[in-house]
Amino acid sequence: MNLDYIKNKKILLVDDEPGLLCMVESILKEEGYQQRKTAKTVKEAIAVCKDWKPELAVLDVMLPDGDGFSLLQQIRTFSDIPVLFLTARGEDEDKFRGLGLGADDYMVKPFLPRELILRIGAILRRCYKQEHPLVHLAACQLDFEKAEVIKHGEHIPLTAKEFDLLSALSRNAGKIVTIDMLCEAAWGENPFGYENSLMAHIRRIREKIEENPSKPVSLITVKGLGYKLVTEG
Q: Looking at the whole model, is its pTM more than 0.85?
């Protein structure tokens, strides 16, 4: 359930403002996106798209040798990569035009860096869905596609809360996941007061995934902090 695979995707940034390009590159770098290229014109962008083959393009509308709409139309003649418009032109007509041409999202400057990161992440996860392999534990495997535990040939279904908790633990395999984080994963934005329910769910999860639930080796309690999922291989 590791979502870091999207951080390896190649992102092209197209804008004629050097300061903005530098800022967006810095935002992406800090978030862990390492493969980035920039272009300041339609001509440069087309060349990068053909040679480098980015997996997401972030386009401005206003460019010195054309506009982002025509650029998107040209890109679509040879590539179906997802596109996010990031532009000062916030009129509804422009937004509808961009989305109508096949853009995946449309953001207006000025923007919040966190919102940009969330939108880029959402596009990449939607367009490049990862096949979820089985997660191997000491006594079983977790199949998140089917929401079940495979143990000694038996397929044991997970409840919705068990699935949410194991998903959060698996995303952070080998790391401590705090009690608050687990409660939030299972019960939403107001997780306070669910500690006893969490402990009950942890007990039931251990009954499903451990060889000996009273001596867990896969779902470990880290006293005073939370829990840790230990995976194999």
A: no
